[in-house]
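Hi everyone, sorry if this is the wrong subforum. Our group has a chain we'd like a structural model of before ordering constructs, and none of us has done structure prediction before. Sequence below.
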Amino acid sequence: MIIVDRFLARRAAEGKPIRVGLIGAGALARGVARQFITAARGQTLVAVSNRHLGRAAAAWTEAGAETPRTVTTPSELEDAIRADRPAITDDPLVVCRAPSVDAVVEATGTTEFGAMVASEAIRHGKHVFINAELEATVGPILRIHADRKGVVVSSLDGDQPGTQMNLLRFAEGVGFEPLLAGNIKGLQDHYRTPDTQQTFATRYGLNPRMATSFADGTKISFEQAVVALSTGFRVARRGMLGVEHRGPIDEITGRFDADELRALGGIVDYALGATPSPGVFVLAANPDPRQREYLDFFKMGPGPLYCFYVPYHLAHMEAPSSIARAVLFGDAVTSPTYPTVDVISLAKRDLRTGEILDGIGGYLTYGQCENAEVTRNEGLLPMGLAEGCRMLRDVAKDTALSRADVEFPRGRLIDELRNEQDRHFGMQTPSA
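Answer:
Right subforum, don't worry. Here is the predicted structure as tokens:
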């Protein structure tokens, strides 16, 4: 927020706040709304869109805002903005098309719906902040579309990918060579379901499917794939290494070899059981022997690897800084550049012909990171495309699903974008 806060203060003083539209009103989306309503300066939330208008209205009133006005067209939203009146709508395109909206936050965690929102926001010249599931699936092609319109497509600050990218930029900026970007996880069980996660979801006001994606490894796979797309990093193996380390994260440096990480071109990964949790970390090398002497004096250890970490991620609380960076400076938190890592679909149990896959956080599949060229060469099914696909054959538990195993729903935008991305980057399967 350094420097950014000064520019936001100036926008506030001039009465020219950055205007933000929010798509979604789930637990975390309402947190984003609360942050804008109660704490953001130089930025203002102007609209919340959700299919259930009551939840959209609650995003405002729970944070102490006045009762919002329901709008159905971009012109009605413009009227509400001019009147400085909170607005809600069940049509996300209203938010994407309103001329006064500077940035759109897509906070639903979906891929098909998210693709529609992101594409429409970009088409109308809005900076757009997308969920990790969407970014990991079609982020590189959305970035190409965004570049053509002169806008930013990115994740939000505060969530794990954004926090890792900030750490990477810091380490590189002070002369280090980043070699691993990592997430810290306390639990991973591929076979968790919405039933097993119901109690946890209820406790924190989450959708049980979201809670399931946290526990079964799918969410962390999407998050680490997002970092890979922005850095060119890969995974050391399918599913990542997932080193179990029951101790302080800065002691994990001895579990990795700098030359091996360098030979891989850098990797994304995670540590299981490390503290502080939840947090993120970066392992980086320093090539200067004299600097390594200083680093040992600074209690960073003798090297050759050094650990930088953040012991928390504040998710929605840091969201406004991402938007300010994009609107004021064209600076993206994450910038999906090239498809290096995918999240593929694996069977959570034995799957039968005719079953319809229930997607992220469901009962039938879980996601794992895989290098993109493996996805291409083996014709594997990206997790972000799995929901709604019909099984064409039986597949055993823990098997990676291929495109040939399923029949895709017709007419989906997410498939069109993924096909466009594969063509653009030469990532079509050999039979395509």
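For your construct planning: The first strand starts at residue 18 and ends at 23. The mean pLDDT is 95.
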